[in-house]
Amino acid sequence: MMRLFVLSLIASLGLCSLALAQNKQVSGTVTDADGMAAIGASVVVDGTTVGTTTNTEGKFTITAPANATLVVTYLGYETQKVPVAGRTALQITLQEDTTDIEDVVVLGYGSGRKVGTVIGSVDQVKGDKLENRPSNNVADALQGQVAGLSVMTGNGELTTTSTIRVHGVGSISASTAPLILLDGAPISSTTLLSLNQNDIEAINVLKDASATSIYGSRAANGVIYVTTKRGRRGSDDVNVTLRTQYSMSSTIKPRLKAMNTEDYLYYMGALYAAASGTDPYNPDDILDGRSMFINDFGVDPSINTNWFDELMEKNAPMYQIDLSVAGGSQKTSYFFSGNYLDQTGTMPGSKLSRYNFRANVDTKVNKWLKMGVNLGIGYQDATSAPTNSTMGALYTVNPLFGSLLLPSYQPCYDANGQLIEWLGVAGGQNPLVIPKYYPHLENQIYLNGSGFVELTPVRGLTLRSQLSASAFDNRSSSYYSPAMPQSSGPEGTGSAAELFERTYTWTWTNTAEYKTAFGQDKDHHFTALLGEETIYTGAHGFSAAVRGVTSTEFINLNMGTESDGRPSYSRSQFASNSVFGRVEYDYANRYFFDVALRNDASSRFAKDDRNALFWSVGAMWNIKNEAFLRDNMTITDLSLRASYGTQGNSGIADYAFYQYLAPGSPYDGQTSWGLANPGNPSLSWEKQGLLTIGVDIELWRKLSLEVQYYRRQTTDMLMDVPQAPSSGFTSLPGNVGGMRNSGIDVTLNYDIYASRDWFVNFHANFNYNKNTLTKMWPGAADVVAFGSGLYFVKGEAYPAWYMQEWRGVDPETGYSQWTAADGGVTNDYSDAVPVDLHKSLIAPYTGGFGFTVQWKGLALTADFAWVAGNYLFNNNLYFAANINDAMGGNNQVYEVLDYWKPDDRYGKKYPSLDYAINNPSGGTQFDSRMLEDASFLRLKNIQIAYTLPDHLMKKTRFIKGLKVYVGARNLWTVTGYNGFDPEASGSNYFDADVYPNTRQWTFGLEFKF
Predict the structure, then answer these.
(1) Separation of alpha carbons 990 and 982, rounded Å
(2) Looking at residue 101, what is its pLDDT?
(3) How many Cα atoms are found within 13 Å in the side-chain-facing hemisphere of 794?
(4) Could you give the count of Cα atoms lying within 13 Å of 406 in the half-sphere of its Cβ?
(5) Are 760 and 702 in contact (CB under 8 A)?
(6) HSE on the CB side for 837, CA within 13 Å?
(7) Torsion angle of C-alpha atoms 827, 828, 832, 838, degrees rounded to 10
(8) Least C-beta-crowded within 10 Å: which of 625, 749, 856, 970?
(9) How far is 790 from 254, CA to CA, in rounded Å?
């Protein structure tokens, strides 16, 4: 009896197990918290490749074991695991997940796309790469982070923007800057500079036609999409973050080093010997020349002033405090932040104070209505250092220039330690007093914001209307004090100048997006987008200046006795209107296709040429989702993609095509008028065609590699065509040129090791861009100068260096040599001819790499950036390594000692002193000797951070988290460039008195409550 009972029990259990193991058809509905259908949600049997997607009503049907678990994923919502537990009908409600931003790529119009389903070339930089950086410039932190994105901060002035390029330079006379969007609204590079980097969630860089053509004329140079942080709906948690940090900056010492007094007097003794006809290589004659120089200039040989150390701030401070509050309720999310930054520059007179406030709020009013607003507002006060750009000329009173040329035998302070305001020996003001008597002030208030209304009238259809604004008021002031020191006392009279400008942009965007899934297994996914956009930009400004100011207390426009030139006034307006559409389709997450169209109309062109149509097509094959690769554990991701499309460029002056008059000088008591712009009524869009082919592969879910080839061809390129002097105009705009950029992007990411306590990662990116000027204006020669040693050279990169070629010093005679017209050499600079040096200002190679090492709460991160193959003209040498300046009493740099001597003849950079003194070609000339390789490798950012353990924070019952960090920016630079900063090539043709970048250290605390 007992045996029969046991056998019956075993049989019953077996039958139950068999029943549970049998597959059943399970149906269900997936909705969000408001009951709206989740269209296209993925439903997969956990641990298998069996899956399906929901239809337009959020419903699905799948075959699964009765004891299986279903994994439901949907973009923007938390992943849910739902046990079947023998049921055949399920009701699944998803909760919104606003923290999963790293898996979402925002393309601008319409909803975001999940990583891996985007056809276009899009690279994302997450917000944690930008947080707590010792810089006030968001763009600077992007340097070296994205393949094909070049970011060069060519000036260290605290209010200077970075030069940003995506895949090279695509135009000459039109804009080469990418479109920058902040939460979907266009902003300027100035607004980007003013953003609080701790407010940024992510930055997406859109590089190919599939991703950018939907933006039409504004996307010719790529798109940078900035997303700010938001709160989280569906949770009552409130997250408060307080950050405070202190930084110190110092100027990176250049390879160029000014001579000390002893060495300078020796050099001047040799020059005086050569000038007097004695032997400049004989020690006795050099001593005699040294004595002559001391007597002529009243030199005290015991004084040895290091002007670089005196003029440059060694530990310029920056204070920053940041407070943010993020949270939400079941229907509303919010993010509020405030930031204060106070920074002192490394050069006299350079300061910045900035206040930023941000509020991002959105709410679901009901099942079909959503509303929100993103608002940022800020104010800043700044003063600028006296440099070539602010003073309008090269003076030794400019601190950087003065650090090279001011003689070391000139003291900076008197015997009592008081600052010497007038440098009697040097014959000029002390650079340290210029900010006091000739300050340049600027204050700015700015606003960027948007508000939207989003309706979902039927399942799958989203209607959205967004109104955005970006505006700023800027006031610049400068005054020249009557108390400015001169050799005979104060100046006596001064001047004042004021400039005001207001710029604003309104953008109104309306879109309708429809998403659906169809087919037996709902594995056909279709999205259609239609939209309209209107942009209106306005600007106006005025300026005035007076002279004859005698008051030292009140220096303003009202105190002048006469006008310093006529007051000026300007006003401009620009408008564009666009309609656009995009269709996206994919089958079973394997085959993806998209098509985009956009028609732009711009007021910058005449009526008949105002409209232009731009388009793109793209395709991607997700090979990993094919049956033959789906279960492969080695290749965890593999896809191929290709796209081609067109874009336009209208980044020119607002009234370039107009012919208009402007007032001139008064005549006979009346306002005179003259032709100010001859115009070109046939001016039209610059056009670009962009082909991109890429492959993405991931191995073992640890090692990923992205490689893409691109080719960007510019036609009808906008160029300023030179005109004959008899026309009265130097140039006229026209669609006459052509340019091509082609190259390769490579991105590598490797999670070397990951465990509960350890994480080690290495990442790198590389870009090679070949730029070629393919077409010039009709009748133009293949080589045309456009100034300062830079030329248009057909068939070569733009811009190309083309100047007199330095051929070294003749070892037999000690004479300088240049390339002559017949290809030989000449010792006479006037017989030298410009030569194509086959060198470019813009680097063809760019990239970056870095690593992260984390052990429990301790983390070390480092990011390097590099450029290679670019050349910059070091114009500082024309003054600091030139006998003509030396004979005038200016100091020189040590490299001038590399001159020819009878017993040291070979490989010299400078000729013999007797030739240099007695020959018109002997001084430093404008030639390729000063053209230097500006390639560099820079440790851009490094940070060591420690996050205290959670169990310690819980004991406080108040602080959720605490992080302590130490970091540095530009800590280490490797370069062969002899100027102050190789990065000056980012925004300058010539490096002459350009405020260099700084090395910064930072110490900070981050509290979470």
Answers:
(1) 11
(2) 44
(3) 13
(4) 31
(5) no
(6) 32
(7) 40
(8) 856
(9) 25
Output the CA–CA distances (angstroms, integers) from residue 864 to 146, 345, 844, 877, 996, in the order listed: 12, 24, 18, 29, 19
Cβ–Cβ under 8 Å, residues 442 and 399: no
Spatial distance between the Cα atoms of 423 and 303, rounded to a whole number of angstroms: 14
Residue burial 616-643, b: 16+ Cβ < 10 Å; e: rest: bbbbbbbbbbeeeeeeeeeebbbbebbb
The candidate with the shortest Cα–Cα distance to 307, out of 255, 372, 258, 252, is 258
DSSP 861-923: EEEEEEEESBEEE-TTHHHHT-HHHHHTT---BGGGG-B-BTTB-TT-SB--HHHHHHSTT-S
CB 690 within 8 A of CB 715: no
CB 166 within 8 Å of CB 147: no
Name the stretches of the chain with pLDDT < 70: 1-22, 34, 49, 75-76, 96-108, 112-118, 986-987
Cα dist from 403 to 118, 673, 1000, whole Å: 53, 47, 21
**Three-class DSSP category at 345:** coil
Tell me the pLDDT tens digit for each residue of 405-433.
999 999 999 999 999 999 988 889 999 99
Give yes or no for a contact between 820 and 833, defined as CB atoms under 8 angstroms apart.
yes
Q: How far apart are the first and last CA of the chain?
A: 68
Which string of b and e fits 940-963 if b means at least 16 CB within 10 Å? bbbbebebeeeeebeeeeebebbb
Q: At what angle do helices 261-275 and 283-297 cross, to 10 degrees?
A: 100
What are the phi and psi torsion angles at 438 (to 5°)? -145, 65
Three-state DSSP class for 86?
coil
Report d(CA 702, CA 698) in Å as an integer.
Answer: 7
Sign of the CA dihedral 29, 33, 38, 43?
Answer: negative
Q: Whole-angstrom Cα distance, residue 105 to residue 186?
A: 18
Length of the chain, in residues: 1009
CA distance 158 to 140: 12
Residue 50: count other Cβ atoms within 10 Å of its Cβ. Answer: 15
Strand 238-251 with 316-328, pairing? antiparallel
Angular region, 489: left φ>0, alpha ψ -120 to 50, beta rest:
left
For 692, the token pair is 């991109």
Q: What whole-number distance in Å separates Cα of residue 78 and Cα of residue 97?
A: 5
The pLDDT of residue 390 is 80
Token pair of 673 as six digits: 């008028």
User: Which of 882, 878, 879 minimizes the C-alpha distance to 916?
Assistant: 882
pLDDT at 489: 87
Contact 831, 946 (CB under 8 A): no
d(CA 690, CA 147): 17
Is beta strand 89-93 parallel, antiparallel or unpaired with respect to 23-31? Answer: parallel
Helix intervals (H) in 440-588: none
Query: Is residue 68 within 8 Å of 45, Cβ to Cβ?
Result: yes
| Integer Cα distance of 532 and 575 in angstroms | 14
- How far does Cα 725 stand from its chain's mean position? 38
Q: Summarize pLDDT for 67-100 with one digit per residue, the tens.
A: 888 989 886 677 888 998 888 889 998 876 654 4
